[in-house]
Amino acid sequence: MERSFAKEVQALRLGDGDTFHGEGILAITKALLQSGVSYVGGYQGAPVSHVMDVLTDAQDLLDEMGIHFEACSNEAAAAAMCAASINYPMRGAVCWKSVVGTNVASDALSNLSSAGVKGGTLLIVGEDYGEGASIIQERSHAFAMKSSIWLLDPRPHLPLVVDMVEKAFELSEASNTPVMMEFRIRACHVHGRFETKDNVPAKISRNAVLTDPSFDYDRICLPPATYVQEKHKFDHRLPAAIDFVRKHKLNEVFDGDCDDVGIIVQGGLYNSVIRGLQQLGLADAYGQARLPIMALNVTYPLVDDEITTFCAGKRTALVVEEGHPDFLEQAINVILRKADLQTRVVGKDVLPMAGEYTLAVVIAGLTKFVEGAVPRGVDHADVARRGADVASNKTKAMELLGKPTPARPPGFCTGCPERPVFTAIKLVEKEVGEIHVAADIGCHTFSTLPPFNIGNSVLGYGLGLASAAGVGPAFGDKRVVSIMGDGGLWHNGLTSGVAGAVFNQTDSVLVIMNNGYSSATGQQHIPSTGTNFRSEPTGQNIREALKGLGVKWQRTVTTYEVGNMMKTLREALSTKTKGLKVIIAESECQLAKQRRIRPLNRKKLESGERLVRTRFGVDDDVCTGDHSCIRLSGCPSLTIKPNPDPLRKDPVAHVNNGCVGCGLCGETADAATLCPSFYRADIVQNPSAWDRWLDKVRRTVIGFLQGLPAVA
Amino acid sequence: MTAFANEPRPTTILIGALGGEGGGLLTNWLVAAAKAGDLPVQSTSIPGVAQRTGATTYYLEVFPTPTAELNGQSPVLSLYPGPGNMDIVVASELLEAGRAIENGFVSPDRTTLIASTHRIFAIAEKSAMGDGRHDSDTVLAAAREMAQTTMLYDLAQAAEVEKTALNAVLLGMIAGSGKLSLPDAAYEDAITAQGVAVDANLRGFQAGLTLARVGAEPVDPDVRRPPEQRIEIDFPAAVAEYAAHGVARLIEYQDLKYARLYLDRVKRVLVIDEAGKDWRLTRETARYLALWMSYEDVIRVADLKTRADRAQRVRAEVGAKPDEPVHVTEFLKPGVEEVAALLPPGLGAALSNWAARRGLTHKLHVARRVRTDTIIGFLQLWLLAKLRIWRRRTYRFAQEHTLMERWLDAVISLAPKDYAFAFELVECANLLKGYGETSARGHGNFSSVFETLVAPALAGGEMDAGRLKAAREAALTDPEGQALGQALTG
After folding, report:
1. Strands (E), A4-80
2. Pick from A581, A621, A404: nearest CA to A498
3. Theoretical Cys-Cys bridge with A175: which of A240, A565, A656, A690, CB 3.0 to 4.6 Å?
4. Is the per-residue pLDDT at B218 higher than 80?
5. If contacts are CB pairs under 8 Å, which of residues 163-222 in chain B contact chain A?
6. Which residues of A touch B50 (CB under 8 A)?
7. pLDDT, tens only, B298-340
8. pTM, to two decimals
9. Which of A362, A397, A451 has the CB atom closest to B142's CB atom?
10. Distance (Å, rounded) from C-alpha A286 to C-alpha A268?
11. CA A707 to CA B97: how far, in whole Å?
């Protein structure tokens, strides 16, 4: 795993009255333990990867408590795991990245929410929306509404978050409905504190096992039970949930003196509204605001009378709701109109329909709102001036800077084994013309960005090959290439892609990036890693799996061998053999590899053992500054520096100290016939006597040839 | 009641960094230091895919009143930085400082901007075919204008000198800014408690403190030593420097006689140039002619790779210790063109044409990996470099000099009619660089531009300096030549 939580998980053992300091993700995990869960599971993905990593590192504690942890194959498997809570009063929690993970989980979620649950069921979703998000921009809210799952969006204040996790289980049990809790990126990574409670052992667990299976036809998702379930949702579960939310005051109202207007905000955005008001002179540092605020920690379902009570007597209410459609704004409008309240609802008319509500956005929206609504007693000219001041910084900065700052898109890490594959594809394209490449999700999606710009579509995790099914035949004899990572393969690509292509006798080329881990999410183990997260051998591998599915044409190529990869690609693109041709591009994730070998190398060096360190360099007097090498690589350690030649203007290529000596520079110089500027240097550390003697002889002779005194 | 009092308010710190630069550790140190001082603190970050080499930010708020004095009140801390509300903006690199300024996070009434002035180039800057670097001076000027206080130093260098990490130096500067009312010991304890490279990071912290409190000693600007002069150069000062570099280069490349030929050619331009124009035409001709006359061939490469100072340069660059042998492998892939280049003109042309007819020009290659630290490997290149005495008789030499003369004649004949056009024509020589395909593409582009825009001008046609400039820039826009095609037809 990329990040170890071995130290931090000690905090999960804290008890009554202790203070926890740490990351939001860890706090949520602690809250699960305080809630008496029987099982936890999920699938990794930012921003909730660390939940999985924390649980992996907390195996000892989970074992002690008899809690089962499952590293699920995908989000559907994780959601399906919650079936335990349908029949038995077992509390459980699963997590994934949303909205994509929720998409994958949605089949199981529909069935889970139809059947209803006996044990508290919590779905923790990382709402990956806005800056820093790596996926399509959609809201999870719609899933909650269509499946009748309750949605919590707690104010990002760790004591409240922890309390809400505990309340969520109670809510779930009181209403027999799974509860979804969303955390935005920044909330997942927030560092704060809260007072802890003792962990609660579950009533049913590996320490206290079930003896009698429960059969109840009403819990089966098959007609006629499904009709009954659908009715039960609205006759019983929804009213029960609303009662619970009202009774336990899960939503919060903060008073303000300008009460002819008010703000209704998703709990997750509360802090931004307070800070925005503060910058506009309308709130203090402790959250005391002049405008009343209602923080919806529960965004579905809404409690009608809470909304009407808050809005009664108010001319205007601002709804601060991120993303579209504006579900809350619409619902609040309906609630108010049905109650015949004439409070005007303002929302997406002063705030943007799409995109993240950063502070700049919130401040601009609040300024417009105050200008339009003119709350009683507010110096709105002062607010407008402050709002304009905030905005002016940016305008002035843009004027001074003149042109936009160059973007820094994510790219392959230094020495990444996936980069050479795209170098090879780019070089093969030079020979055969441009190829349609069906890209996939993973680190390899960065191929679509500069400098490669390879990949014509991205349709979802593990769907690279499946997404070539329609377009492939349209290119006739010119085969399309699909990309899939080992993570995507095991997530679903093996069936949706490979099995489907063999079944349909698709004549196409698939490149599987086998780097050993689910790398983009933090190097979690997957079936072909060879071991599971507990480091137990699993005996699964890609070649055997493909063979079992009937893939006849298979080649395994070490990714760094660009020439060999080009040859294999050419063959796959031109062979007379019909059907699916799979190239397994194999080399370990460089981040994982470095983390593995660095401590070993350090030890070797300290013990005086001979160790060769390899890295690349560029002769700056040979380089002419064309940068072809960079356009074929994009390695972070291959960069530029000012030209030392007084006559040349263009900067020269330069390999910095980050180089891990992966060899791509040399391979590319060869394969692309670039230029002779690159050299590989093998530095012999702790040289033997023979090394030293040989070096001395060589330097003496070479020094003599150079007409200089020999260097000793 | 009008507005709330602005105080107390949290001290806000925005850190802009690149994935993998230790921004997370810096944040942890700050959190630990604040915690030790009993100050309420919150931090967050948006790693996401940015951890893979992209730009990322970390954000902290530290409340100035200790928890013990808050009487149970708890400040609401923001997860987002607010434009116009940042007390400290930290950037681990200059472009990231520019990005923070661009986003409105640096404001004159409150922001202390702490940034390293070194550059880590973005992919668009690196992959440009010429010089795509973003202008650092504009960013620095904007920084000084927009921030209340700036602390701008090359911290990468400072960190290297102290053998420490840049983020530790940044921590020292944050402490030294005095914006957080915490004692130095709180930060040092945080470094010790985190337990990551403690000694080195404590050194870095001290270096940062000194930079913030005392500043840095002014660095002498790079004084470029003029080359050793072996021929008397009687040129105006504006030209002399480049000419001197050119002479030194060509003596090294070929011989004294070759350098004299160079000076004669430069003089031909000088006599038609104008002092009033600061001899710009001659100066740039002196630059590009020297580069062109020292065109890259295998002899040149072999020579550069076998020089006495080269091995030392490699050792320094890869950080080898004095007692560590370094094995150096060169990646050479000579092909038909490189061989033809060395043959006499008749033979070279025949071989080159034969290969072109069969479409083998870019296909016939021999990949050679040569170990220049071994005696045999070194000898191969060393002997190749000795072919210098044969160079004047080669096919490539004849070709380059014919083209060069044509270019020079055009410059001289067009300058009196349109100085700007002639100047742009001189600059066109920058299209000629590199090896193999790059060189072939450059020559192709040069010829297209010459035939389309310069040849008609020589025949008395229109001279449009702007168009010539646009075509030259287009040729350096994309390797596929699409932009150039448009520029020439448009």
Report:
1. 19-23, 39-42, 68-71
2. A581
3. A240
4. no
5. none
6. 132, 410
7. 999 999 999 999 999 999 999 999 999 999 999 998 888 899 9
8. 0.93
9. A397
10. 17
11. 50
* B-proximal residues of A, 634-653, CB under 8 Å: 634, 636, 638-640, 646-651
Determine the 3-state secondary structure of B488 from DSSP.
helix
Residue reference for tokens 């394209």: A429
Closest CA to A275 of B42, B181, B37: B42
Ordered alpha helix ranges (H), A462-578: 471-474, 486-488, 500-503, 542-549, 562-574
Q: What is the DSSP string of A147-173?
A: HT-EEE---S-HHHHHHHHHHHHHHHH
Render pLDDT for B438-467 as a digit per residue (tens, 0 to 9): 888 899 999 999 999 999 999 998 899 999
Comparing CB atoms, the residue among A393, A413, A701 nearest residue B53 is: A413
A187 contacts A156 by C-beta, under 8 angstroms: yes
Cis ω for the linkage preceding A651 (within 30 of 0): no
A144's CB contacts (< 8 A; 6+ apart) are A150, A151, A180, A299, A300
Query: What's the Cα-to-Cα distance from B153 to each of B115, B121, B174, rounded to whole Å?
Result: 7, 17, 13
Task: Give the ipTM of the model, two decimals please.
Answer: 0.94
As given in the structure block, the two tokens for residue A588 are 């370990």
Task: Please state, rounded to an integer, the average pLDDT across all residues of chain B.
Answer: 92
CB under 8 Å to A505, separation ≥6 — which residues? A578, A579
CA A157, A160, A163, A164 dihedral sign is: negative
Look at residue A712 and tell me whether its pLDDT is greater than 50: no
List the single residue in B95, B121, B379 with the smallest CB-CB distance to A640: B121
The domain B2-214 belongs to what CATH superfamily? Pyruvate-ferredoxin oxidoreductase, PFOR, domain III (3.40.920.10)
Which range among A619-623, B427-431, B457-461, B476-480 shows the weakest confidence by mean pLDDT? B476-480
Q: Give B169: exposed, middle or buried? Use CB within 10 Å, 0-12, 13-18, 19+.
A: buried
